[in-house]
Fold this sequence. Notes:
The chain is built from nine helices and no strands. The protein is an all-alpha fold and about 230 residues long. The protein folds into two domains: about 1-60; about 65-100 and about 140-230, no CATH class. The longest helix is centred in the first third of the chain and has 31 residues, at about 15-45.
Amino acid sequence: MTGSRERHRGFWAENSLTxxxxxxxxxxxxxxxxxGRAEFNEQMTVEGLQPLGFAEYLTSSDFAVDVTxxxxxxxxxxxxxxxxxxxxxxxxxxxxxKVHQAGIESEREQRMGDHAGPxxxxxxxxxxxxxxxxxxxxxxxxxxxxxxxxxxxxxxxTAAYNDQQLRQLEDPVSWAAYIVTPDFWNRTLQNWQSExxxxxxxxxxxxxxxxxxxxxxxxxxxxxxxxxxxx
Length: 231
């Protein structure tokens, strides 16, 4: 019994970062649904229409577009950052590789092919399409998730926009017409710019500021010019 409890505590301790953020995500999503429904129903009441129940709101296009427009901007941020940091560097930032390492690096440095170790992922040691695919798998998946979320946002945004059009006794629009509207691009660009600003701020501030114990920071005593070293 004691061993079982120890293994259980070990699982939570070893996966605490993922679990903490996963739980926080669900809590925040729940509160977003509650406050989003309240705001939506206030608008419906002003327009003299019937408010939606909680289950109805969760399956509405209004809730879906609010969620997916934030998701796609987050995946875009990581997609751009993953690929951007292959070739782009920032002297003094722990978010950057060392200046002389810009580029895809050698197979020895990446522990690929003949340089793969016994603990390396199986596909890293191959010399065919599997290695090529696996060597770009993180960025590819992030890019795919961005595209899927962007597509979901555009579809749910079209539905939400058309609901508003119908309430105002105006004609609905097609998906192709909606994705060139100011409404769609205002929703999209306000998220993109905030993500890009956050990344740029993290890269620059981490040159001069420290957070003891965080792998996102350099060691407290590291020189400002130290690049690619995490604490």
